Amino acid sequence: xxxxxxxxxxxxxxxxxxxxxxxxxxxxxxxxxxxxxxxxxxxxxxxxxxxxxxxxxxxxxxxxxxxxxxxxxxxxxxxxxxxxxxxxxxxxxxxxxxxxxxxxxxxxxxxxxxxxxxxxxxxxxxxxxxxxxxxxxxxxxxxxxxxxxxxxxxxxxxxxxxxxxxxxxxxxxxxxxxxxxxxxxxxxxxxxxxxxxxxxxxxxx
Length: 205
Ligand code: SF4
Ligand code: SF4
Description:
This protein is of the alpha+beta class and about 200 residues long. About 25% of the residues lie in helices and about 10% in strands. The strands form 4 sheets. It has a two-stranded antiparallel ribbon with strand order 1-4. The protein has a two-stranded antiparallel sheet with strand order 2-3.
């Protein structure tokens, strides 16, 4: 984001980070659809993306984008996310952020019930993993550098610099990375920074 801002400013275009409701705008413009899991889905991309907005100062004759598509539905309401969600955040009543594990990841320490249900260090990912709309996305291989950085013994011993270099310093707060690595869960210690592909249900609901 900051790289793009600098690049624009280098060619004389003023740009500022914009606090606008990006999710609602993309849905209203027909560029994305909101799913039962509360994830945003884009055709050809799935739900595994992050969006940030920049506000740019352009002359009127430089404005070329005119949204033309009507809003669309994508969710097939198969309930796979509802069945798989470790927090029980997705139900016929909708999505409840208070039960979503992702809502507790930014603070220095996560509540015990969240720690117990985590399956990887970054995000929760379960609802995205089981969603058939994402099944065309394959996990990429983990590199040797990444494996070494997230070695369980290394993280528990507090040697977290190589891992932080890959995932950012936010995970350092309150010894979070080491604490999470030391927590045993049903699927093993949560030292893996990546989502693990789970056995998938047949595509037909
Ligand atoms: S898993 Fe099924 S119900 Fe849940 S968001 Fe994906 S398509 Fe919709
Ligand atoms: S991120 Fe995890 S806890 Fe949150 S809705 Fe998805 S599966 Fe549930």
